[in-house]
């Protein structure tokens, strides 16, 4: 369905038929990477769907303690995102580095069997799992970027995130099935999650291809001087350098000397601060509507379903009208979801609207933000640059989760959720001003 008719769309000659490039969908490499993400997300979401319930309602941890664990779940990726991105760029081994990250996350699933009811041990295992995610994310997104022409990046990331969200949709359902079959044994969920994650590593090794360095340099030489995403505000940060030159730490740190990259990194930090953990959203819905514990994992399914349906259409829309408006629209939807949590609407309408807006937020931001960043970054440091953007989000998310847990504990969930909605509004305006500083952004 998603396979492109163009084998290497990025390397099409400048005089090639532009209509042929427009009708191409996405490359086979994007489909292969999407398949790996689909399988991995089935594994990850099996654990994620039951973790808030297990910690807060099972082990009776406080909202602040859950905020710390939830922040670690994403924030632990921060340092290794940068390390993974730099190593992948320096040694031109993006597939190998991504594979190591997927393997680390798979092995971590077995660690949950040894953690038992110890919250610190669970936090440590989750940190290892997220370190694996941190290592793999930037190389994977760089592989997608290199397999796609600049004008189709929104579509490519939309397709990839659609496949990813299929896994997120299926994961909680698989977890429920395993729990039902194994007499509500969490150990059975962890073992099954490990087996599925191992399958993803096999698919990556067999079907994902990495383009040689020489091909990347030829593609970079054919890229237009200014990408359609940048206009005047986000001009390319630097001209591509020779593939024979090793990527140095000095060059990697030098990325932030370029104003467009610096503005994007700052924006990613702001956007991360505006986001609270999914588990908090689901816990507030569960408490307000007094949902049965059996239905709790299905809240994640609702978000994933909306994400699944909207990721590809919003990716295509971002290519047509501009990526920044779509990203900011996604955060606006997130703010509305926070307001709904304790608004006048209740019952099934509340559940449907909140989960739909939550899924729309992910569909409009997850891949589209990376598509926004891709054309700004120099080809030989693209993985490192993507890691910088993602690290800013991850560190800010860690802070956000802890602060929201503290606000919940001090003021209660209703006041905390309204404060979060106000924070989203401030961040949307600040991000728009930051990225439009030197002109309009598409």
TrEMBL record:
Domain of life, per UniProt, equals Bacteria
Please report the record's description of how this protein sits within the membrane: Multi-pass membrane protein
Answer yes or no on keyword Membrane.
yes
Transmembrane residue ranges: 23-44, 64-88, 165-182, 188-208, 264-285, 291-312, 324-342, 348-373, 394-411, 417-435
Where does the record place it?
Answer: Cell membrane
User: Which InterPro entries would you find in this protein's record?
Assistant: MFS, MFS_dom, MFS_trans_sf
**Ranges for domain Major facilitator superfamily (MFS) profile:** 29-439
Instruction: Enumerate the UniProt keywords alphabetically.
Output: Membrane, Transmembrane, Transmembrane helix
Q: What is this protein called?
A: MFS transporter
Q: What broad taxonomic lineage does this protein's source fall under?
A: Bacteria, Bacillati, Actinomycetota, Actinomycetes, Micromonosporales
């Amino acid at each position: 369905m998603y396979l492109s008719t163009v084998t290497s769309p990025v390397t099409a000659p400048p005089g090639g038929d532009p209509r042929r490039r427009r009708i191409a969908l996405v490359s086979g490499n994007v489909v292969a990477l999407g398949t790996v993400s689909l399988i991995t997300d089935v594994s990850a979401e099996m654990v994620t769907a039951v973790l808030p319930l297990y910690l807060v309602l099972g082990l009776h941890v406080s909202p602040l303690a859950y905020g710390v664990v939830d922040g670690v779940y994403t924030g632990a990726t921060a340092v290794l995102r940068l390390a993974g991105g730099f190593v992948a760029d320096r040694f031109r081994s993006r597939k190998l580095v991504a594979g190591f990250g997927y393997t680390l996350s798979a092995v971590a699933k077995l660690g949950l069997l040894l953690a038992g009811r110890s919250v610190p041990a669970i936090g440590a295992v989750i940190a290892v799992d997220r370190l694996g995610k941190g290592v793999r994310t930037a190389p994977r997104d760089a592989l997608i970027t290199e397999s796609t022409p600049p004008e189709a990046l929104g579509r490519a990331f939309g397709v990839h995130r659609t496949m990813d969200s299929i896994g997120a949709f299926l994961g909680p359902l698989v977890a429920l099935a395993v729990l039902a079959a194994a007499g509500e044994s969490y150990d059975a969920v962890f073992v099954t999650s490990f087996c599925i994650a191992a399958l993803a590593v096999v698919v990556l090794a067999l079907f994902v291809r990495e383009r040689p360095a020489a091909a990347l340099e030829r593609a970079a030489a054919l890229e237009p001087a200014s990408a359609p995403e940048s206009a005047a505000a986000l001009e390319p940060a630097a001209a591509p350098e020779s593939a024979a030159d090793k990527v140095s730490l000095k060059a990697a740190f030098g990325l932030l000397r370029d104003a467009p990259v610096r503005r994007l990194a700052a924006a990613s930090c702001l956007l991360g601060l505006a986001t609270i953990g999914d588990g908090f959203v689901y816990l507030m819905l569960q408490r307000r509507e007094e949902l049965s514990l059996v239905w709790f994992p299905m809240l994640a399914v609702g978000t994933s379903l909306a994400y699944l349906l909207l990721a590809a259409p919003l990716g295509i829309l971002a290519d047509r009208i501009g990526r920044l408006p779509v990203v900011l629209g996604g955060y606006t939807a997130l703010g509305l979801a926070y307001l709904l949590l304790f608004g006048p609407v209740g019952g099934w309408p509340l559940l449907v609207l909140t989960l739909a807006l939550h899924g729309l937020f992910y569909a409009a931001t997850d891949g589209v933000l990376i598509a926004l960043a891709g054309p700004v970054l120099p080809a030989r440091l693209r993985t490192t640059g993507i890691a910088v953007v993602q690290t800013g989000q991850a560190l800010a998310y860690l802070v956000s989760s802890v602060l929201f847990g503290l606000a919940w504990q001090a003021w209660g969930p209703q006041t905390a959720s309204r404060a979060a909605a106000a924070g989203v509004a401030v961040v949307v305006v600040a991000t728009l001003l930051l990225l439009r500083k030197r002109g309009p952004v598409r």
